[in-house]
Amino acid sequence: MKKRQSRMIFVALLVLGVGLAGYLGLKAFNENLLYFFSPTDVVEGKAPTGKSFRLGGLVGVNSVKRDGIKVNFDVTDNANTFNVEYKGILPDLFREGQGIITTGSLINGTFVATEVLAKHDENYMPPEVADALEKTKQ
Fold this sequence. Notes:
By secondary structure, the chain is an alpha+beta fold. Helices cover 33% and strands 32% of the residues. It has helices at 2-31, 39-43, 127-137, and strands at 36-37, 53-59, 65-67, 70-76, 81-87, 99-107, 110-118. The chain is elongated, with a radius of gyration of 22 Å.
């Protein structure tokens, strides 16, 4: 009888350990996901505050303002526009009217970017940006 009880305790602990490991793995995975939002989503309050996410669209025409290494510019999906602040060196392909994706978070109503990605050729548009622009046309 004692052998059977110790096996049952072992199996119970094993099941509990696997369940706990699975829970912690899923929690870590969800915390590291970067969801994509368009400027319209951000204006409508769908984007998380204080948590990192991706914002994409077109760089607003005549919106780029440089102050040394700090750059402010607008990202638009042709329906809404959102201001982005970035400190760092922009990609060589960054320019007004171009599709970009930025990674960062909302701080006091401004999107503070930690990374800016620009499309790599004239015909390519990141799928998330293309979908967001298509939604605003409808």
